[in-house]
Amino acid sequence: MMRITTNSTLYTYQKNLLKNSNQLYSAMNSLTTGRNFDSYSADPAAATRAFQIHSSLNATNAQVSNNKTVYNKFSSAWDMADDMINNLTHDLGETPLLSGLNQPSWSTLNTQGDVILSGAEAMVQSLNAKYDGNYVFNGADTKNPPFAIETEGDNYYLTYRNVRVDDDPDSEYYAQEYKDINGNRLYDKNGNALTNKEALDLFSSGPEHQYVDIGIGFKVDNTGDVVDSTAFDAAISGLDFIGGSGLDADGDPKNIVSIMLRAAEVFKGYDQASAANGEGGSWGAAGNYEDAKRLVEKFTSAQENLSNQHIQLETKAKYLQTNQTQLESTFYSLNTELNSIEKIDDVEAILALVSAQTSYNAAIQVGANIVPQSLMDYLN
User: Fold this and answer.
1) CATH number, residue 309
2) Could you tell me if residue 349 is inside a domain?
3) Count of the separate structural domains present in the chain
4) Which domain holds residue 117?
5) Which candidate in 33, 119, 264, 280 could, as Cys together with 113 as Cys, close a disulfide (CB 3.0–4.6 Å)?
6) End-to-end CA distance of the chain
7) Residues 6+ away with beta carbon under 8 Å from 243
8) What are the tens digits of pLDDT across the range 346-356?
9) pTM value?
10) d(CA 56, CA 53)
């Protein structure tokens, strides 16, 4: 027959009481903190998964913020382009240009030239617009205004980053040393200062990049360059947007702003005074009627190019909008999974606390009945 000693009874009771006490504390702590575990050791598997989700949530949150900023930038650029197409190029470009080709209107040709010039200036102001303190149409350089109109005698030149985009390619201007708007030089990989021509070639050789992580698998290659397909390019080249740099086969500018400037020179160079005297008027050194007609045709083509650029902005903005929805959905799913791992179910937690409290009270009551009394208790 097995003999149960007093010490054995006390040990078993204390062990069970401590277990019930720990269960009660754990239930109370869970209900107070709202968490399923307080430390990694409490639930290693759940804690590991929670850490992974926290990391993914932080990355997704940053991607949501990046995507929203870039979307707002492209949306603003689209609005600016929309205003340029529907208002500036039409009211201050197309209308006075077509009017200038109508011979009965030649008596106001100089005025039409002034209107076209003001339209070109308004276009430059729009292209120098900012979003969130950064210039929208200056490629990767968002801190300096991209465009300006430079005057030399009766000629007007559009500049991009302080270099003319459509001067005579054989002029001495392009052989001069390039300096940006702040007076800084540009250097090649050998440390040689670039000329205006070399700087323009650099700006025109291809779009600059301003890669942003928007949740499409951001990666860099072995050389440290971003893999194009894994990031969104947020740079918008104003030079590409308006039609590029240089002159075409006819010696005319390729971009819409410079075309307007050349047309303004032709119109403003017309001798209105002689036309008023019935002498038929005479054209100036800037060009004649045939030149004006050719520029108007090229202006129409440049308008179409600007419309295509406008559509591309809209396409990218819609893509960013769709991606924003996807990122927000991903963030919601991750957050829901994290809550299921870390957060308690209030009903279950209350039931667990009631059960633990009942077990603890029962253990206390059992102890009062089975634990032997001391000598003092017996004497009393």
Assistant:
1) 1.20.1330.10
2) no
3) 1
4) 51-338
5) 264
6) 34
7) 254, 255, 256, 302, 305, 306
8) 556 566 656 66
9) 0.77
10) 5
pLDDT (tens digit, 9 = 90+) per residue, 328-346? 999 999 988 887 877 665 5
* Listed range (10-14, 52-56, 63-67) with the worst mean pLDDT: 10-14
pLDDT at 141: 87
Question: What is the enclosing helix (H) or strand (E) of 233?
Answer: strand 232-233
Sign of CA dihedral 320, 324, 325, 327: positive
pLDDT beyond 50 at 155: yes
In contact, 48 and 287? CB cutoff 8 Å: no
| Residue 89 domain flag | yes
**In terms of Cα–Cα distance, which of 237, 252, 265, 254 is closest to 127?**
237
User: C-alpha angle with apex 245: 242 to 250, nearest 5 degrees?
Assistant: 105
The radius of gyration computed from the CA coordinates of the chain, to the nearest angstrom, equals 38
Closest by CA to 159, choosing from 255, 52, 273, 223, is: 255
Of 49-53, 85-89, 357-361, minimum mean pLDDT range: 357-361
In a domain, 96, yes or no: yes
What distance in Å separates the CA atoms of residue 284 and residue 289, rounded to the nearest whole number? Answer: 10
Better-scored residue on pLDDT, 313 or 46: 313
pLDDT tens, position by position, 265-309: 999 998 877 665 555 678 888 999 999 999 999 999 999 999 999
Cβ atoms 241, 165 nearer than 8 A:
no
Helix (H, G, I), strand (E, B) or coil at 323: helix
